[in-house]
Amino acid sequence: MNFENILVTTENGIGQITINRPSKLNALNKATIQELHDAFEALEANEEIRVIIVTGEGEKAFVAGADISEFANFSIQEGAHLAAQGQELLFDFVESLRKPVIAAVNGFALGGGLELAMSCHFRIASDNAKMGLPEVSLGVIPGYGGTQRLPQLIGKGRAMEMIMTAGMISAEEAFRAGLVNHVVPQAELLDFTKNIATKIMRNSPFAIGRAIKAINANYKDGINGFETEIRNFGKCFGTEDFKEGTTAFLEKRKAEFTGK
Ligand code: COA
Question: Is 135 among the residues known to form the active site?
Answer without folding.
Answer: yes
